[in-house]
Amino acid sequence: MSNTIQRNMSLAGEPPVSLSVVQKISVLMGMSGLMVLLLAIFNINFPDKSIWLTISLTSITLGIILFSYGAYAHKSAGIKNDGVWFKSVSSRGFLAWVLGISLTGFYIILYFFPQFLGLNNNGANTGLIALFDPLSKLLSGNPASQWFVYGTLYTTSIFAFGIKFIWKYRHNRYEIIRTISVMFFQLAFAFIIPELMARLNNDEAYNIPYYDLKNIWPLNYYNFDQYRIDGFITSGDIGMALLVLGIVSILIITPILTYFYGKRWYCSWVCGCGGLAETSGDSFRQLSDKSLFAWKVERWVVHSVLVFSVLMTTAVIHSYLSYDADKYWLNKDIFLISVAVFLGALFALVWFFKREDLKKDAQYGAIGYLTIIIGLVGIHYVFGNSVFIFNPETLRSTYAFLIGSIFSGVIGTGFYPIFGNRVWCRFGCPMAAILGLQQRLFSKFRITTNGGQCISCGNCSTYCEMGIDVRAYAQKGQNIVRASCVGCGICSAVCPRGVLKLENGTQKGRINNDAVLLGNDVDLLDLIKQNK
Questions:
Q1: 392 cis-preceded (ω within 30 degrees of 0)
Q2: CA dist list (Å): 87 to 62, 94, 96, 218, 243
Q3: Residue 52: what pLDDT?
Q4: From CA 189, how far away is CA 183, in angstroms rounded?
Q5: How far is CA 369 from CA 311, 366, 407, in A?
Q6: Within the chain, which residues score under 70 in pLDDT?
Q7: Least enclosed by CB within 10 Å: which of 54, 310, 324, 460?
Q8: What are the φ/ψ torsions at residue 147 (nearest 5 degrees)?
Q9: How far apart are CA 103 and CA 358, in angstroms?
C-alpha cells in the first residue's frame, strides 16, 4: 500500500521512477532487434536473411509491447501525466534532440541516398535493404527497395506502438476502436494488398502502378502523373477501377464521409501519417505549439501547400493531355476550363452560403488564392504561354522535394520529439487542408463542451496535438469547430470531468459564438435574447 502513496504536494505528480525489471528486459530485447538492423547497414552479411529479419522485427515489436506492459499493466485505467515534462525524451531534452537528429538523418539517407542502405539498381542489393529482400519477394515477387524497407518499419511501428496506445488508453472505447482501425488500414490497405497487387505486373497484360489504397489525392500528389494514368488505362478493368476509385474518392466519398463524421474519419481512423503520429508519436503530443501566432502560420502555410498542390496537379495533367481521342478522351482545353469553372463555382457557393463562417484573413486568402489560379489560367489563353508559366515537371519535382520529401518525411516525422507529433498534419498536409475546409464549413461534427463543469485543469489543451487551446473553448462553453481538429478524442479522454464530447449533430447551433459562462443552458440564453 505504501508504494501507491504520493509523498509530495506537487500537482505535477511524482518524477518518473526507474525502470522495472520487465521494462529493462524489454529494452534489451528491443535494442537487440535494432542492433541487427544496424549491423546490416554496415554490410554485415547475415547467412539466412529471412531468419535474421524475423528475429529483428519480432524483437523490436515484443520489446515495445513488453515495455508497455511494464508501464501500464499494473496501473489503474485512466489517463495520467506520467511525468512527461520530467522526462528528457518527451520535454525537448537531450534525449529528444538525439532521437530527433537520428530520425532526421535516417530519413535523409532513405529519401536521397538509398545506396548507403544497400540499394543497387544494377545488381543484387546489399546491406540493410538486402536483409528485407526475402520478405519483399514473398509478398510482391520483387527485390526490396528503400520504400519497402520504409513501409515495413512504418507498419511495424504502428502495430507495436498501437498496442502501447491501446494499453495506455484502455479506459476509452473510442480510442481503442480507432487505433485498431489505423493498425488495420496500414497493415492491409497500405502494406500487404499493394505488394500482392504488384504480382499482377508479372503478367504482360498489367502495368499497375504501386497503389496505397487508402491514400487520396492530394496526399498522393503523384496519382495523376502520366506514367500512372497510362498504367491504369493499359491494365484493363482492374486499372480502370483503381483510376475511377481515385477520382470518386476525391469528389464523392471524401465529402460525404466528412459531412457526417468530420475529418476524423480519415485523419484519425485511416491515414497512415496520422496513424504513425497517434501511435509512435503519442509521447510527444504535448509539444505542439498552442500560441495564436502558430495558429495563424498554420492556416496560411497549409492552405498555401494545398494551392501549390492544385496548381501542380493541374499543370502536370494539362502537359500530357492531347487531342488524340484514341489515348485520352479529355483534351487540354476542356480540362483547363473545367478546372476553372469548378473552382469558381465552388468558391461562389462557399462565399454565398458560408461567408459569415470565414474569418477576415480567410476571406482575403480565399480571394487571393482564387485570383492566382484563375489568373494563371487566363495568362495561358491570353498570352499563349505554357500553362502556369513554369515547366510542369519542374513544378512537380519541386513539390515532390519540398513537400513530399522534406516536409512530410524529414521534418514531419523526424522532428516528432521537437515540434510534436502532428507538425506535418498541421502545417503541410494538403489532404488535411481540404478535409479541414469541409469540416469547418459543411460537416455535422463538433466537440461540445459543458463550461459549467470545467475546472480549468488544462489537460485538454496540453495534450491537443493540433495546437488547439481546448480549455479556452471549454471555459466559455463553446462548441469546438476548428478546421485543424482531427477528432482524435484525446482531449475528451484526458478530461477528469467529462466536459468534452465528440458529436455528430445537426448543423443548427453548431458554431455557437456566444459564450455561455455559466454552464450550457442554451434555452436560457435564447430566452435572454428574446427579451432584449
A1: no
A2: 23, 10, 9, 37, 48
A3: 95
A4: 10
A5: 10, 5, 21
A6: 1-17, 322-328, 357-366, 373, 376-377, 379-390, 512-532
A7: 324
A8: -75, -30
A9: 38
